């Protein structure tokens, strides 16, 4: 077409260069440039170097960046649907997580569409487990534990197991673990590996509570300004990145756990008692979420459970 | 193209600053010019969002609180006591009480994670006292500007957390790795004061009668409040009661307690300390706002990224790489603050650094020291700004006073490059 | 002018109040870990909001006392008429820049409201509320710069930093 000039997009993301999400995005950006014959080029600004994690969505919404990546459940305050992938024990395997994403994608896309954002793809983090300074046999062992709460969900879990929710910023987690201000928290084995958590805690319970996702979205205005072939190429590349990301995430899960073990951590699935206790908490929270998310949420859950 | 952009931006910055535009607004102006001329992005909304994000970030709360703590302590007898307690001990050391700046900064660095807070708090206590006693301004201002940058190198340290997260190295190890270089740097600063004083014996105020050991010990009781305060703050950090950021609030409470114990806690003290702290913080905050926006503009323009990539492509030997990076960071540090430097360049530089076989913990300490230099280089140096806010001296004069400290930091980089064990030995002793 | 100066003083007091608020929120964070009954979810975010409000509300009074730092080397060496011209130009540039900051701070509030932007932390605060402090403070800064511009125009700039308290160490 006539408007076949090169378009340059900025892509702020929150995670550092070594992370597998970031690697996938860098590959995606390269593929986009190749697939569009250089008509669209994306500059990836990793590690919050352009906008910090909480600002990225807003930056794309208001046109300061054209494309961005966020941990979608961070925005569950805005809309409970964004937090559907972080309900504990709703979807605990890659298969279920995929099903849940397929079930929830139309609703999440519609919600983001209203905000001027178009979803390109989503990639899950490895399953979330419990890091603990001391061994845990059942949920009762978590009573009184200093449990890091960084969003409404993790805070609620703490309440339900009788732990004390503690607010500690990610930047201060290491020190808080060293001094005992925090002695239990939930995250993925990947994050535990990235932050070398074995220097402070020795136990990891791979209970696979949920698989949170990073969603890559583009400003609708920026997308609509592209010509048709470029749009097609972008969507195709995004689909490839999604497939690659899911594969990568799943393959790396075992590797991360192996690294935790190699560094002297005790890694286990958790005792049957612990799993049963946590499942019960999961049921409570699914119920609470459904109440919060109303008919729309219930509909998504119904599709997922079909 | 990059050369043109750099030229235009530096020219604009120097022009705005020389004309007397307020520094924070000048930075906003330069960032605005850069984005408006050389990018297609909408400038204003991005500016507001970024400035809001940086002005309301949790980790920054330590800065205004430590500044308030300094304003309270300034209105107590604490600094007088500090000098009375230290004077007999430092009597025979060439430079005498000039060392209070360095000792005070080193101690306070163990409490505070930022260099501006260290500078403001220690300066509030030492500068009036040193001036009253007739110590040369050039030395008291210079050593304070330099030594207070130790706030970054001696743990806890905000910049180390930023680097640790970026480079995926253990923050605990980085903290431990900073101790020896921090003490080394403090020792070098003290060495400079000693040499200078031996060369200019008449410039140091004369000593009183020679104190006996009993005198020294008796005078040391005056140090009790300072030690209690620092011990209390450190204690809450290392027992896990407070995080490094929250320690500032503990410090404010401790300062209020000291003021109460000395019967200095009046309505006037409280009011003046609050209003004084708010204005000093606000002055710094406007500059931080400008710096945050300039960082954003640099992110869009990609200048630091391009230079970092270019350096990476040269295929240098490790020592050449370190020399080139030192130069690069010194230039960058004239215009940007430390955290921005790390965030803007690490993504591109780390692969190069790893390929050159440099230890990432070592490299982190290297980065912290070059960022320390950035605090005292004009035109944009935060410790210089803090000192200008406190003394009314011009940045250019302050930078001149601080220049010897800058040279010492370069020397420290050379030493750490020649003897990397200074950095790596202690963290390797850590368990795990 | 008198009324405006009183307004700036009021802003300084509000800022001081918000600094106390910052302290209170951080202390509450510590206390909440020691005694869970005192825990206030989101206290860390509130501390950040208080700090931002303190900084922005203090902009105007700090300017009025001449405590926003600037490089005076060139200005000090100019003869009086030239100095006045440069001061006017500098204030005009300052007005433009501060005006931009204020305008886009107002837009930030408005957009946060329009987008229903909510804090992602435990506090779940609608962000336009704490951002009001930034908007108000930057608008006051524009006012303060305008006042000073007029003072320079009339050739009667206010003396910098009235010495009624030891805000500086000199
Ligand atoms: Na420190
Ligand atoms: Na500098």
TrEMBL record, chain B:
Source organism superkingdom? Bacteria
GO terms of molecular function: transmembrane transporter activity
Question: In terms of one coarse class, where is the protein primarily found?
Answer: membrane
Q: Kindly give the InterPro entries that the UniProt entry links to this protein.
A: DctM (IPR010656), TRAP_DctM (IPR004681)
Q: What subcellular locations does the record give?
A: Cell inner membrane
Task: Give start and end of each TRAP C4-dicarboxylate transport system permease DctM subunit domain.
Answer: 11-422
Tell me the subunit arrangement: The complex comprises the extracytoplasmic solute receptor protein and the two transmembrane proteins.
Function as written in the Swiss-Prot or TrEMBL entry: Part of the tripartite ATP-independent periplasmic (TRAP) transport system.
Query: What is the official name of this protein in its record?
Result: TRAP transporter large permease protein
TrEMBL record, chain C:
Keywords, A to Z, come to: Cell inner membrane, Cell membrane, Membrane, Transmembrane, Transmembrane helix, Transport
Question: Which Gene Ontology biological process is one annotated for this entry?
Answer: C4-dicarboxylate transport
Keyword Transferase appears in the UniProt entry = no
Q: Tell me what topology the record assigns in the membrane.
A: Multi-pass membrane protein
The record's GO CC annotations read: plasma membrane
A UniProt-annotated Pfam family: DctQ
Membrane-spanning intervals of the chain: 12-34, 46-64, 85-106, 126-147
Q: Any idea which GO molecular function terms this record carries? A: transmembrane transporter activity
Domain annotation Tripartite ATP-independent periplasmic transporters DctQ component: ranges:
24-154
Protein location: Cell inner membrane
| Subunit | The complex comprises the extracytoplasmic solute receptor protein and the two transmembrane proteins.
Q: Which family does it belong to?
A: Belongs to the TRAP transporter small permease family.
Functional description taken from the UniProt entry? Part of the tripartite ATP-independent periplasmic (TRAP) transport system.
The protein's name: TRAP transporter small permease protein
């Amino acid at each position: 077409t006539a408007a076949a000039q090169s378009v340059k997009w900025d892509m702020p993301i929150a995670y550092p260069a070594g992370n597998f999400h970031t690697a996938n995005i860098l590959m995606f950006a390269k593929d986009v440039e190749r697939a569009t014959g250089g008509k669209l080029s994306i500059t990836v600004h990793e590690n919050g170097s352009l906008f910090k994690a909480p600002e990225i969505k807003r930056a794309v919404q208001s046109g300061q960046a054209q494309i961005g990546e966020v941990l979608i459940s961070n925005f569950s305050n805005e809309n409970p649907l964004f937090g559907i992938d972080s309900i504990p024990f709703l979807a605990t395997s890659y298969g279920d997580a995929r099903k849940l994403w397929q079930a929830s994608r139309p609703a999440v896309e519609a919600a983001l569409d209203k905000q001027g954002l178009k979803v390109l793809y989503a990639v899950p983090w490895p399953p979330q487990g419990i890091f603990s300074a001391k061994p845990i046999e059942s949920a009762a062992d978590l009573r009184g534990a200093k449990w890091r709460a960084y969003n409404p969900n993790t805070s609620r879990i703490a309440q339900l197991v009788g732990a004390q929710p503690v607010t500690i910023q990610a930047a201060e987690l290491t020190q808080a673990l060293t001094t005992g201000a925090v002695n239990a928290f939930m995250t993925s084995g990947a994050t535990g590996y990235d932050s070398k958590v074995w220097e402070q805690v020795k136990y990891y319970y791979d209970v696979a509570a949920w698989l949170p996702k990073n969603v890559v979205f583009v400003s609708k205005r920026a997308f609509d300004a592209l010509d048709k072939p470029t749009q097609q190429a972008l969507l195709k590349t995004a689909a490839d990145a999604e497939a690659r990301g899911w594969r990568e995430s799943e393959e790396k899960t075992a590797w991360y756990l192996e690294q935790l073990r190699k560094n002297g951590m005790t890694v286990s699935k958790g005792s049957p008692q612990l799993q049963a206790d946590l499942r019960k908490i999961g049921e409570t929270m699914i119920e609470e979420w459904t109440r919060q998310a109303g008919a729309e949420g219930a509909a998504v859950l119904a599709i997922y459970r079909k | 193209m990059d050369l043109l952009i750099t030229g235009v931006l530096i020219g604009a910055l120097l022009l705005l600053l020389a004309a007397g535009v307020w520094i924070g607004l000048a930075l906003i102006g330069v960032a605005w010019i850069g984005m408006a001329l050389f990018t297609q992005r909408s400038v204003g909304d991005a500016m507001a969002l970024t400035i809001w994000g940086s002005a309301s970030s949790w980790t920054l709360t330590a800065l205004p609180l430590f500044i308030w703590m300094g304003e309270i302590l300034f209105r107590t007898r604490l600094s007088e006591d500090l000098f009375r307690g230290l004077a007999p001990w430092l009597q025979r050391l060439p430079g005498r009480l000039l060392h209070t700046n360095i000792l005070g900064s080193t101690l306070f660095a163990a409490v505070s994670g930022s260099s501006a807070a260290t500078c403001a708090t220690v300066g509030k206590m030492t500068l009036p006292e040193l001036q009253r006693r007739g110590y040369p301004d050039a030395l008291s201002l210079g050593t304070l500007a330099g030594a207070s940058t130790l706030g970054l190198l001696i743990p806890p340290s905000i910049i180390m957390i930023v680097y640790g997260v970026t480079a995926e190295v253990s923050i605990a190890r980085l903290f431990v790795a900073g101790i020896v270089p921090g003490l080394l740097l403090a020792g070098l600063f003290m060495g400079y004061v000693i040499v200078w004083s031996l060369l200019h014996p008449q410039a140091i105020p004369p000593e009183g009668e020679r104190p006996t050991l009993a005198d020294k010990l008796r005078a040391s009781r005056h140090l009790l409040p300072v030690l209690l305060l620092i011990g209390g703050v450190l204690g809450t950090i290392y027992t896990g009661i407070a995080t490094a950021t929250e320690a500032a609030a503990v410090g404010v409470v401790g300062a209020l307690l000291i003021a109460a114990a000395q019967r200095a806690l009046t309505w006037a003290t409280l009011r003046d300390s609050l209003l004084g702290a708010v204005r000093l913080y606000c002055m710094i905050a406007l500059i931080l706002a400008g710096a945050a926006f300039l960082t954003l503009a640099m992110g869009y323009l990609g200048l630091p990224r391009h230079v970092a990539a270019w350096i990476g492509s040269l295929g240098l030997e490790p020592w050449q790489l370190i020399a080139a990076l030192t130069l690069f960071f010194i230039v960058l540090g004239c215009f940007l603050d430390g955290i921005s430097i790390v965030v803007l360049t690490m993504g591109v530089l780390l692969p190069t650094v790893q390929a050159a076989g440099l230890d990432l913990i070592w490299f982190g300490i290297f980065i912290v020291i070059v960022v320390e230099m950035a605090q005292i280089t004009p035109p944009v140096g935060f410790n210089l700004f803090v000192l200008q806010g406190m003394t009314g001296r011009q940045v250019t004069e302050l930078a001149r006073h601080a220049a010897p400290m800058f040279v010492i930091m370069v020397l420290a980089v050379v030493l750490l490059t020649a003897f990397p064990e200074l950095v790596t030995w202690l963290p390797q002793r850590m368990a795990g | 002018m008198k009324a405006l100066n009183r307004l700036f003083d009021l802003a300084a007091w509000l800022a001081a109040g918000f600094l106390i608020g910052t302290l209170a929120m951080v202390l509450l964070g510590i206390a909440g870990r020691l005694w869970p009954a005192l825990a206030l979810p989101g206290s860390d975010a509130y501390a950040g909001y208080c700090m931002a409000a303190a900084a922005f509300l203090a902009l105007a009074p700090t300017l009025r006392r001449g405590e926003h730092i600037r490089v005076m080397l060139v200005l000090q060496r100019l003869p009086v008429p030239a100095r006045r011209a440069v001061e006017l130009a500098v204030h005009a540039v300052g007005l433009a820049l501060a005006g931009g900051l204020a305008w886009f701070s107002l837009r930030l509030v408005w957009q946060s409201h329009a987008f229903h932007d909510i804090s992602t932390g435990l506090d779940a605060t609608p962000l336009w509320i704490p951002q009001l402090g930034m908007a108000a403070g930057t608008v006051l800064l524009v006012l303060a710069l305008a006042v000073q511009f007029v003072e320079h125009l009339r050739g009667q700039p206010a003396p910098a930093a009235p010495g009624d308290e030891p805000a500086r160490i000199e």
